[in-house]
Amino acid sequence: MNYVPPLADNRYILLDVLDAPAQLRPALGAEAADPELMDPVLEEAARFVGGVVAPLRAVGDQPGCRYEDGRVTTPPGFRQAYQAFREAGWPALACAPEDGGQGLPWVLEGVLFEWLNAANHGWTMAPALLHGAYECLRHHGSPELKAAYLPQLASGEWLATMALTEPHAGSDLGLARTRAVPQADGSFRVSGTKIFISGGEHDLTDNIVHLVLGRLPDAPSGPKGLSLFLVPKLLPDGRRNGAHCDRIEEKMGLHGSPTCVMRFDEALGWIVGGPGRGLAAMFVMMNSARLHVALQGVGLLDAALQLARGYAAERRQMRVPGPRDGSQPADFIEGHPAIRRILDTQQAWVDAGRVLAYQTGIELDLARSHPDAARREAAQHWCSLLTPVLKAAWTDQGFHGASDCLQVFGGHGYVREWGIEQIVRDSRIAMIYEGTNEIQAIDLLLRKVLPDGGAALGAVLLRLARDLEGDSHAPLLTAIDRLQAATGRLAQAAAAAPQVPYWIAGDYLRATALVLMGWAWSRLASQPAAGDERWRRPAEAFRRWIRPELDMRLGMLETAS
Amino acid sequence: MNYVPPLADNRYILLDVLDAPAQLRPALGAEAADPELMDPVLEEAARFVGGVVAPLRAVGDQPGCRYEDGRVTTPPGFRQAYQAFREAGWPALACAPEDGGQGLPWVLEGVLFEWLNAANHGWTMAPALLHGAYECLRHHGSPELKAAYLPQLASGEWLATMALTEPHAGSDLGLARTRAVPQADGSFRVSGTKIFISGGEHDLTDNIVHLVLGRLPDAPSGPKGLSLFLVPKLLPDGRRNGAHCDRIEEKMGLHGSPTCVMRFDEALGWIVGGPGRGLAAMFVMMNSARLHVALQGVGLLDAALQLARGYAAERRQMRVPGPRDGSQPADFIEGHPAIRRILDTQQAWVDAGRVLAYQTGIELDLARSHPDAARREAAQHWCSLLTPVLKAAWTDQGFHGASDCLQVFGGHGYVREWGIEQIVRDSRIAMIYEGTNEIQAIDLLLRKVLPDGGAALGAVLLRLARDLEGDSHAPLLTAIDRLQAATGRLAQAAAAAPQVPYWIAGDYLRATALVLMGWAWSRLASQPAAGDERWRRPAEAFRRWIRPELDMRLGMLETAS
């Protein structure tokens, strides 16, 4: 059973619930934010993902990628699908028109990548890195470097990597040792070993553009000594550069994406951004990249849910309490309360995840292009605060919810042929990469909330609370008050006991996620269609099975502070 | 890094905390319950598991088992390890002396299998089924059948299977269609397809004894029409019987155990128990088998914890809040609060799981052999009520806690060479087999608690409460009261709305598990060693990070009823 993008659901949230065109118009102009333009893009994207990318999910797992003598062969069909993707112009969707892009809103790219990840996580890893590399180069590259590389990245003619991690430097990039020695002509010779490089070597494109974090000979130790270098696989004159793939990892899942050990051996490179500005150059794309990963969580959960729903609608076992199908010896398990609860609960996460991630995608564009400086700043705060929450909470649910969906299959879920266990294995990595979920929690509480005493988060919560009027929202408004009060007390407690916020950062992130989810469901509840079974069931699942955790987390924060 | 049985921990809980010998003496006599006897058995078992079985975990995953032309080849070394296991007499540990067994308490076998599963889940699947088949045959087999098969099962010379599931009959065994036609000599010809048969075919022993659930020609439909048949791979005269392995499943994990599709083609078999008594014959061993699976959860979690602890003690990344190692650029991650929380939380589950599972193992022997009928009945209730709770809650934690341990490794956790992702994949099956965890919850609430209005559970809770005196236990005593009150209200609510208990059976099981865990930690807290860092840290993790869920679940039960 191949994944089918649920176009109507995505469209409903993007256009009806959030009215993305109205929100984006002041920033992007009437043309880029035209619903008459968005609709056909979404329809075409759904067709491409369902028709071309989804059927390759199983071969992505087995045989997966193969390594031999420095070369990586991607699974059968992957290269053709990528060429079709490129020829249809999908990489250029949100790139600037002057670089050959289509200049469409980020959020449309977000929907496209949600679907691509749901359909085929492994395949999608390759193009998913393109946009970040493009943004990084666009903002920090020299004019010569931009002229030589931006158009090929916007068009997807060449793919890109982020070469950051080293064997001893993972969450702590400041420990990286890769060296870059300046040459007389302004270029650099880059040497060092990078691990966990997604798409470090493959056969999808001829050239691969590596963005490599390294250190100049006279650089200080720690993160401030890091610079970023563009190191192409093929040099401008067509020769091979000294960028070698020594191995691909054997992993729990994601076998469709080669995870490479890359050895840079006096490879020729050019600096992106100034010396010591490597992390700053990368952080340009951090929010966008982490939001992509949050949408992987949403997409993979939706894919797991589709499989589980399909199985539950065709498998008969035992009797359902209540009305029975007397003509058969057993009822469909979709009617069993324990199964219903699993399905409705995942739907509640998927729907709220879309509301929050799409709104954040809209804010990404507003932060960049809104004419009002105050609105830009508010959008910037929204993105900065919500991105780690969405990344951690929805990749967590992507894995755990997919495992819950596996449970719907009973023993069949543990067997490969049903496809669900692949999603569980694939989705596990999203809790780790782009900053582990523990790092996201520390980023939220220690770097973004406590330093200003919770002021920026308070402004976001106030914005949420303004949408919540009437008695039915009283519990959520109370929760917002409690979260604010706990934030203040934590800021005080941290002064005396600096370990405290580190201990409970994960609870703080969960509480914030559940407040946001409550807001998302209140937005959904305000729609005319809220009473339909499609929306009523997950709304009830949120209220019954998910929301109780919010009180628990708030209680833990209050006890700790 | 191979698993090392933590002998001192297990011994401490079995002998110091629970004083198993004193509890067992009235039932088994001074000799079988002699601590002087138990200690060397535990020591020898720890040596065997660590030295012989643990080193084969990785080959169990890759290459795993291979299938060709009806034959299954187990991974290199598996057969030799099994022969060593058999020759050392381990299968016979808790079998009756008259069958060639050693007649030791069940709980010793429990500890042995906790270690075996932790060391090598796949390998352990083969001997894990032996004892259940032995008990089933011992209680329900004819004298001739017992004479022909019991000694070989007790000694482990032959291995056994439970052939229950069919493609359309999983959780609902009443749908099984396998047919058994009586022959003139009192034997039967058994025909049908069984799936998910662990160890249905292998090269560990020459003969394999299948216990097959089937239906006589005139049997009624549904579970009451099921009978149990002993069908050997090799007939008494040495010829092959009509029991064929058509395929082994490709699974998410547990590749060291062949999961077979078995085709019985007019296979010769003999009935075990009377016609229509198939499920009754099997249910003899249900508590024991499910308790084994609960101990898989405990063991696999402990194995994951050993790996994560080892990694966290050697990996330096970033600075720990508080004291730092200035001679190095970063501190060991074991000092990071988020990592510490993961490790201590898993330890809290492992320790409490041991207390509860070992006590339940003791009760299994008391239920069978205590001279006092009232004590036997109380033990029977304890086993009946606690077994589904331990099976569901600790296999759930086995998987989710192993995944948390994987998180400690960051990206390295996702890579095969570290071994942690194998434990995550292997452990997932325990949430499904021996009755899915959803079925366990229904078994607890719908079949065991509500029918007597919560009386039997009330007696168990009263027994727990008697151990809890003093102010420090007030929250747990309050929780016990709330659970009792919620039970009464659920019984009433169920009369009007029969779906309600099905919806919240999972919450009910979790609340019960957390009450039991609270009791276990109060037992541990009453020991002289409770203040040592080894026991203080997980105790604190239980109180801070685990216990809050209890209030949440109780609140959900109260809202629902």
Short characterization:
The structure is a homodimer of 561-residue chains. Helix content of chain A is 56%, strand content 11%.
Q: Could you outline the blueprint of secondary structure elements for this entry?
A:
The structure is a homodimer of 561-residue chains.
Chain A: H1 7-17, H2 20-32, H3 35-53, H4 57-61, E1 66-68, E2 71-73, H5 78-87, H6 106-119, H7 121-128, H8 130-140, H9 143-155, E3 159-163, E4 179-182, E5 188-198, E6 208-215, E7 226-232, E8 243-248, E9 259-272, H10 278-283, H11 286-312, H12 337-369, H13 373-408, H14 420-427, H15 437-449, H16 455-466, H17 474-496, H18 499-525, H19 533-546, H20 548-560
Parallel strand pairs in A: 3-6
Antiparallel strand pairs in A: 1-2, 4-5, 5-9, 6-7, 7-9, 8-9
Helix pairs in contact in A: 1-12, 2-12, 3-6, 6-7, 6-11, 6-12, 8-9, 11-12, 11-13, 11-14, 12-13, 12-18, 12-19, 13-14, 13-15, 13-16, 13-18, 15-18, 17-18, 17-20, 18-19, 18-20
